[in-house]
Amino acid sequence: MKEEQSSLLLKSSSLFPPPQGVKLSYGTAGFRADASILKSAVYRVGILAALRSLKTQSVVGVMITASHNKVTDNGVKIVDPSGGMLSQEWEPFADQLVNAQTPETLLSIIRECVEKEKIPFDGVQSAEILLGRDTRPSGESLLEAAKHGISSIFGAIALDLGILTTPQLHWMVHARNKGMKATEPAYFEQISSSFRCLIDLIPNGTKVNKLDNRVVVDGADGVGGEKLLVLKNILTDLVNEVRNSGKDGGLLNDGVGADYVQKEKVVPRGFGSNDVGKRCASLDGDADRLVYFSVPSNSSSKIDLVDGDKMLSLFALFIKEQLNILTREGNKKSNNNFQAHLGVVQTAYANGASTDYLKQLGLEVIFTPTGVKHLHEKAAQFDIGIYFEANGHGTILFSESFLSWLEARNNELALVSEGSEQQKAALRLLSVSKLINQAVGDALSCLLLVEAILQHMDWSIHKWNELYQDLPSRQLKVKVVDRTAVVTTNAETVAVTPPGIQEAIDAETAKYPRGRCFIRPSGTEDVVRVYAEASTQEGADSLANSVAKLVDQFLGSGSSAR
Ligand code: G16
């Protein structure tokens, strides 16, 4: 490393000293903490992003967001050149860099990484980093810190894209590296035009949502609400109303948003008995998660939740139907056949009833630990891989080889049987691959796909919700002294430490018919999460409460943080 580069790094890092006595780790989705202690971490992630861009000779992204966390938190994560999460191989390096106590240690860690990764670091190669942030008040100054980090590396350029949803930034990094236009209008153009294609392909002529039957969306008082208003102007038939759009002074994620709705199973702020019978949806704070719900007639606050598992099931059903049409009888005459391998990926939070349903559909179901970085990797191994967390975070991945076959098949069908059912099925799958975000879970594109499929099937939200009946479940958070004391295995279903806790959980679980329960340390909040399922709601609640008490006993002082 040249002398000038070293002294630039020493000088700039002295402006961003790390907070004393704080150890941060690159968790489920990057670094997250109270925004007041994050400047140094964000500055250093800027450096890391520049190194990643130099290493890969591609554009990378940095997103400033804490998604579902409370408004006073913030966070930062790197978007890899593929548009996906930072390669997990680089996470330990991110941890070391962010926790280095002095500018000198920081410099020696950077040197080590440059050497180990053989990063071209001569000031000749260039690096480009796209920056985005959500609507948190702390976002602007943290973004400046990221810019400082980036400009501390010779040849690195930061492009500030302002306020974006997290999936928009992922999409733009993906698009840039594929040589496509990577702007917000290009994003909206792609998702809205592929949505229109799906609507035009609905059997028996084009159907349009009746005005009184359009979805009502809770924007979590975050960036998603703001962007949905843009989409509402482009697709005027789509959304009836956006509430909690962030424009009316509501507090981000405070009694609103997908995380709140899914965990508490109650209406978000601004919804109630006037919404009985309506199809409602909720985005999370940075619009990478989506859940649907309806308000039953006998309730003003309880909801019927349609979560990520049901979205996965709806998507799987639709994709499977299109694949069946494509490969049925008349098609067998073609020399151009392809047995697409369709698979689904879930986590331990998936409702047991959803897994049973997916298996009944004949689908291969794989489990991974929590975090889309794990699910995405597995889904990418299929020709079509659908992954979803129960919390509404997920997408559908199409392999390059399947897409080239599909394009060719569509062209072939256009010549021999234009407008046939087979060709329509090919076109529908092609449209889905353009509509749904190939980089990461994206609430806006998932909302469009759900709306298109419900219209295609002519289904109400109730019909959709009846695909299977969820087993009653309950999730709790427990605040403990040190959540890292919980170490898990088997896709987080078994706690290896502290010793004896798993046996105690098993003994408790055995008391409940259809009981299932696990604990895991959160990677985004300072809590241990407890998930319980049983044949009745009382059973699930009681199992979750007993296990929360066990967590308290084994891990020390913490009041239940539900
Ligand atoms: C992030 C991750 C999700 C994960 C969620 C909760 O979501 O992207 O994959 O499910 O955190 O993680 P944990 O249980 O470890 O706290 P988001 O929407 O907050 O970015």
Automatic annotation (TrEMBL):
Its cofactor is Mg(2+). Its EC number is 5.4.2.3. Residues 307-459 form the Phosphoacetylglucosamine mutase AMG1 domain. Mg(2+) binds at S67, D284, D286, D288. GO terms for molecular function: metal ion binding; phosphoacetylglucosamine mutase activity. It is an enzyme of class 5 (isomerase). One of its GO terms (biological process) is UDP-N-acetylglucosamine biosynthetic process. Keywords: Isomerase, Magnesium, Metal-binding. This is Phosphoacetylglucosamine mutase. It catalyses: N-acetyl-alpha-D-glucosamine 1-phosphate = N-acetyl-D-glucosamine 6-phosphate. It comes from the Eukaryota. Interconverts GlcNAc-6-P and GlcNAc-1-P. Belongs to the phosphohexose mutase family. Pathway: Nucleotide-sugar biosynthesis; UDP-N-acetyl-alpha-D-glucosamine biosynthesis; N-acetyl-alpha-D-glucosamine 1-phosphate from alpha-D-glucosamine 6-phosphate (route I): step 2/2.
